C-alpha cells in the first residue's frame, strides 16, 4: 500500500540523514576496530558470537556515549546489571537505549583495563612508555586516548574524540584531562629529570624527603619545584606524572611491561 507523502515524512527523512551523518563517538570508533581486528592486547581476540545480540531500540541517541544508535542496540534498563555504577556519567540521560558499540564495550574486561589509543590508523594498547610517546607526539586527529587507572570503571563512553594534536582531551580514569602540548611537554621533561631522584608521590604531593632534595641539589630542586607547583592543580598533572619516564625504567626495559599495570606509584 502506498503511503502518501506528507511534510512529516520529509522531516523524518531529513532527520534520518542527519542521524547517519553524526560523527562516531569514542565508543563507536573503538568498537569498529575491535569488531574488525579483535583487542590489541596480549590475549587479543574478540569473538563476535559472544557479543550480546542487538535488538531494535526506540531512541536515536545512545544513553551512554550519545552517539547514534541507528535504531539498534540494547534497552539500557534490561542490559545493565544492578551493580552498574557509571549511570550518572551517561551522556544522554533521557535515552533508554544503548548503541551496539557501548553494548560490546560494557561487556568486555579489556575495555576497562587497557590504555587505548584509537585513530584512523587503528587501535593500539599502550604501555606507559608508549603512552608517554603518544602524549608528546599524538597521531593525526581524530583520535581517542583512554587511560584507566582503577581498571574497574567504564570509561570509553565518557571519552571525547580529539580533534587537535596540540590541545586534546585524554580520558584519564573519570577525568577528562586536557593536554596543551606546548605546556605539557616541557613540564614532562622536567618531571622526568626529577624522577631520577624523587618518587612520583613526592612530585604529585609536593612533599619531598629532605635527603632526596639534597641529592638533587637544593637550588635545582627549588627551581624545578617552582615550575611543577604551578601545574600541580591541573587535571592533567597526575597523567603527566604517570607517563613520565623514570631512569630506572630504561635500565629495566619497562617497554615490555603489561599495559594494565595501572597508575599506582610505588
Ligand atoms: Zn553508545
Could you characterize what this model shows?
With 266 residues, the chain is α+β, with helices and mostly antiparallel strands. The protein folds into 2 domains: 8-108, no CATH class; 115-266, no CATH class. It contains 12 helices and 8 strands. The chain has helices at 7-20, 26-37, 76-79, 100-106, 110-113, 128-136, 181-194, 200-205, 210-216, 218-229, 237-243, 247-252; strands spanning 55-56, 72-75, 97-99, 116-119, 122-125, 143-147, 167-172, 175-180. The chain has a 5-stranded mixed beta sheet, with helices on both faces. A 3-stranded antiparallel beta sheet has the order 1-2-3. A hairpin with a 2-residue loop joins β4 and β5 (122-125). α2 packs across α4 and α7 runs antiparallel to α10. The protein is elongated, with a radius of gyration of 22 Å. The termini are far apart. Zinc ion is lined by residues 27, 62, 64-65, 67, 98-99, 101-102, 157. Zinc ion binds at residues 27, 62, 64-65, 67, 98-99, 101-102, 157.
Quick description:
It contains twelve helices and eight strands.
Write the layout of secondary structure elements.
Layout: H1 7-20, H2 26-37, E1 55-56, E2 72-75, H3 76-79, E3 97-99, H4 100-106, H5 110-113, E4 116-119, E5 122-125, H6 128-136, E6 143-147, E7 167-172, E8 175-180, H7 181-194, H8 200-205, H9 210-216, H10 218-229, H11 237-243, H12 247-252
Parallel strand pairs: 6-7
Antiparallel strand pairs: 1-2, 2-3, 4-5, 4-6, 7-8
Helix pairs in contact: 2-4, 7-10
This protein binds zinc ion.
Amino acid at each position: 500500500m502506498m503511503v502518501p507523502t506528507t511534510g512529516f515524512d520529509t522531516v523524518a527523512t531529513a532527520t534520518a540523514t542527519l542521524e547517519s551523518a553524526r560523527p562516531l563517538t569514542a565508543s563507536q570508533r573503538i568498537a569498529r576496530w575491535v569488531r574488525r581486528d579483535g583487542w590489541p592486547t596480549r590475549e587479543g581476540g574478540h569473538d563476535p558470537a559472544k557479543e550480546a545480540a542487538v535488538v531494535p531500540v526506540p531512541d536515536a541517541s545512545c544513553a551512554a556515549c550519545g552517539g547514534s544508535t541507528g535504531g539498534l542496540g540494547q534497552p539500557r534498563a534490561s542490559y545493565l546489571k544492578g551493580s552498574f555504577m557509571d549511570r550518572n556519567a551517561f551522556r544522554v540521560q533521557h535515552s533508554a537505549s544503548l548503541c551496539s558499540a557501548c553494548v560490546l564495550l560494557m561487556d568486555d574486561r579489556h575495555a576497562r583495563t587497557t590504555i587505548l589509543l584509537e585513530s584512523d590508523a587503528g587501535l593500539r594498547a599502550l604501555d606507559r612508555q608508549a603512552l608517554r610517546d603518544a602524549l608528546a607526539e599524538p597521531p593525526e586527529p581524530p583520535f581517542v586516548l583512554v587511560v584507566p587507572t582503577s581498571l574497574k570503571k567504564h570509561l570509553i563512553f565518557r571519552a571525547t574524540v580529539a580533534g587537535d594534536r596540540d590541545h586534546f582531551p585524554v580520558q584519564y580514569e573519570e577525568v577528562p584531562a586536557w593536554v596543551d602540548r606546548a605546556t605539557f611537554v616541557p613540564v614532562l621533561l622536567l618531571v622526568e629529570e626529577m624522577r631520577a631522584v624523587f618518587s612520583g608521590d613526592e612530585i604529585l604531593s609536593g612533599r619531598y624527603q629532605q635527603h632526596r632534595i639534597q641529592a638533587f641539589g637544593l637550588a635545582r630542586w627549588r627551581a624545578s619545584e617552582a615550575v611543577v607547583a604551578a601545574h600541580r592543580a591541573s587535571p592533567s598533572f597526575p597523567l603527566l606524572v604517570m607517563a613520565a619516564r623514570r631512569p630506572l625504567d630504561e635500565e629495566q626495559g619497562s617497554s615490555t611491561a603489561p599495559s594494565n599495570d595501572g597508575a599506582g606509584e610505588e
